[in-house]
Amino acid sequence: MASQIMIPAFSELTRVFARIGCLSFGGPAGQIALMHRELVEERKWIGEEQYLHALNFCHLLPGPEAQQLATWIGWRLHGVKGGLVAGLLFVIPGALVILTLSILYAYAANLSWFAALFLGMKSAVLAIVVQALIRIGGRALNTRFKQIMSVAAFVALFFFNLPFPLIVLGAGFIGIVTAKILPEYLGIKAGNAAPVATARPWGKTAQTIALWLAIWVAPMIVVLLTVGQDHVLWKIGSFFSQLAIVTFGGAYAVLAYMAQEAVQGFGWLSAGEMADGLGLAETTPGPLIMVTQFVGFLAAYRAPEPFTPLIAGLIGAGLTTWVTFAPCFLWIFTFAPWIERLENAVWLKGGLSTLTAAVVGVIANLTIWFALHLLFAQVSEQYAGAIRLYIPELDSFNPSAVLLSIMAAILIFRLKWNVIKTLAVTSLTGLALGFIG
After folding, report:
1. Short-list 145, 364, 416, 158, CA closest to 249
2. 62 alpha carbon, distance to own chain's centre
């Protein structure tokens, strides 16, 4: 009932979202559940239907849906200032923690005990990614057409090394066309949606887009004028700006894209370090996409001129976080007034549906890629014509990684442990095995 909805004071909204930002562990599912309990059930700031309506809307957008949902709730309650406060407080605690961990990682990465500790963490990450693959696949692949799209995306990435943006945009286009002519292939019921009578705020929308585009590109202009396009900072900013546009499907899809480009393309870090970064992001509050900050820090730290490594790393991390999350505010503040119209757009539902199916294939590619690089220290790429094959060096097989991966799988799938407990146990076990070895 509308009469039950309570509009909080701005100071109370700030306090509550600061608390949520510090407690938002567990990935998007846990974060969405936490906000539902805090804001819908306990405080009744948002109605159940409004909450679910906004959540569906956020699933339509690239980027972290939980952070965007927090931004939308803040906007709904206190306009743009409310959206800024809610969205920023959802990100800042985790960003500070993972920045600190990134610094420690950069300085301790060559220590043997540190490598043993992170072997256990990477083994847990493999089990976590497999769990995400099963969960998302079970929800998204509910028609034969979607299953075919998922397999096609996997084959395109794993065997033909096609660009991730091409796969995502292509899947979305196919979904839009399919929704128009064969909606039953996507599980969409035919029929006309009820007309929406809300106003079309074209002028306000144009102003919002112009403002947030300027905010988004501002640090890139500074980078261009100071160090130029050949510097790693420009490459970091350009790469993560592109990623912010095309990464539908959550943090694991983001990781697949980064694995393809940051590891194999730019050479900023290794496959094992990418898994380490996800492990760090899993243990901190805030969106899992904060793993991008870890990548940005290491990339700049290792090519620091004319700065010191630490200063370059801090700038790289800050730039990455800026270009990752500024678009999130752009999407919400631009499209929030249009939410009811977009929710009823069958073509948009079709595009998202097929895109999500393709993301399952993307995550499957990531899972096998991680497994190969975890279980074998040396994995080479060979080509048979246009087909790419990963060939592990059998002599580099790591039995400790197998043992730790089996342990992580038992903890997650059989004992139903949460991510934090699993990471803690496998990391400590990895450390113990390192000392024994």
Report:
1. 364
2. 9
Q: What is the pLDDT of residue 1?
A: 41
The answer to whether residues 346 and 179 touch, using CB atoms and an 8 Å cutoff, is: yes
Query: Which bin fits 64, alpha (ψ -120 to 50), beta or left (φ > 0)?
Result: beta
Q: Choose among 172, 324, 155, 317: nearest CA to 241.
A: 324
Using DSSP, state whether 26 is helix, strand or coil.
coil
Task: Select from 367, 407, 373 the least CA-distant residue to 390.
Answer: 373
Give kind and range of the element (H or E) at residue 131.
helix 112-140
Q: Tell me whether residue 300 is exposed, middle or buried, using C-beta atoms within 10 angstroms of its C-beta: 0 to 12, 13 to 18, 19 or more.
A: buried
Contact 344, 193 (CB under 8 A): yes
Whether the Cβ atoms of residue 71 and residue 329 lie closer than 8 Å to each other: yes
Q: Tell me which DSSP letter residue 260 carries.
A: I
Q: What b/e readout covers 230-244, taking b as 16+ CB neighbours within 10 angstroms?
A: ebbbbbbbebbbebb
Burial of 414 (0-12, 13-18, 19+ CB in 10 A): exposed
Coil, strand, or helix at residue 383?
A: strand
pLDDT digits (tens, 9 = 90+) for 254-304: 777 787 789 888 999 988 898 888 888 887 888 888 999 999 999 999 999
Q: Residue 134: which H helix or E strand, with range?
A: helix 112-140
Alpha-carbon distance of 288 to 286, in angstroms, equals 7
- The phi and psi torsions of 390 (rounded to 5 degrees) equal -95, 125
Residues in the chain: 437
Q: Which two tokens stand for residue 19?
A: 């608390």
Q: Rounded to 10 degrees, what is the CA torsion of 220, 222, 224, 227?
A: -120
Q: Give CA–CA dist 408/248, Å, rounded.
A: 27
Backbone angles phi, psi at 53, to 5 degrees: -60, -45
Give CA–CA dist 263/211, Å, rounded: 33
Dihedral sign from CA coordinates of 352, 354, 356, 358: negative
Cα-based angle 81, 342, 239 (whole degrees, multiple of 5):
65
Amino acid present at 427: S
Structural contact between residues 249 and 359, judged by C-beta atoms closer than 8 angstroms? yes
Residue-wise pLDDT for 202-214, tens only, equals 888 999 999 999 9
Q: pLDDT tens across 328-365, in order? A: 999 999 988 887 666 667 888 888 789 888 888 988 98
Residue type, 374: L
CA dihedral 269→270→274→277, nearest 10 degrees, is -60
Are the C-beta atoms of 299 and 316 separated by less than 8 Å? yes
